[in-house]
Design goal:
175 residues; alpha/beta; two-stranded antiparallel ribbon; Rossmann fold; 27% helix; 35% strand
Length: 175
């Protein structure tokens, strides 16, 4: 279902208002479906894009991030979770690709030390646990909230001003 106005969740009780945006909810029945979603999203991303991945522990945030990173790189790559390093960086044809896991972040001030705020301007950023960003949520993010659903997971995807991503996701949902 697509909406003209939405408030997308980025954590328990926290939302990012996105007027003029779109959202779609997709059921992912398996890890293979999650990988396929990552391959669908990956070519739509460009430097300056921030993909915020919310959801509880075990919802599939790192799995989807790995699928996107591997699709962007065009090869099977060892993509460790950045839970302990906080940030892993990769380089693809378009430039830098940052994968951040903010679960262990002690506060929004740590973002400056990580360089994440600068990366929001120039790199493709995949951010797990975006509620830890506080007021530093980047402009026009792509929000994906994952949650367990039956034998699979649900992905609520929200964004605005992205006709390419909208078309790709509509195609994914109809396959």
């Amino acid at each position: 279902m697509w909406h003209d106005q939405l408030a997308a969740p980025v954590g328990p009780g926290k939302t990012v208002a996105m007027s003029g945006g779109f959202s779609i909810q997709i059921f992912l029945s398996s890890d293979d479906e999650t990988d396929r979603l990552g391959r669908t999203i990956a070519p739509c991303l460009r430097p300056g894009d921030s993909l915020l991945l919310a959801g509880p522990v075990g919802a599939g945030k790192s799995h989807l991030s790995r699928a996107i990173i591997r699709a962007r790189l065009g090869r099977m790559e060892d993509v460790p979770s950045p839970t302990f390093t906080l940030v892993q960086t990769y380089e693809d044809a378009a430039g830098d690709l940052w994968h951040a896991d903010l679960y262990r972040l002690s506060g929004p001030d740590d973002l400056v030390e990580l360089g994440l705020e600068d990366a929001f301007q120039s790199a493709i950023c995949l951010v797990e646990w975006p509620e830890r960003l506080g007021p530093a949520v980047p402009e026009d993010p792509i929000l994906i909230t994952l949650s367990p659903a039956g034998e699979g997971r649900s992905a609520m995807i929200a964004f605005r001003n992205r006709a390419d991503l909208q078309a790709a996701l509509k195609g994914f949902a109809h396959e």
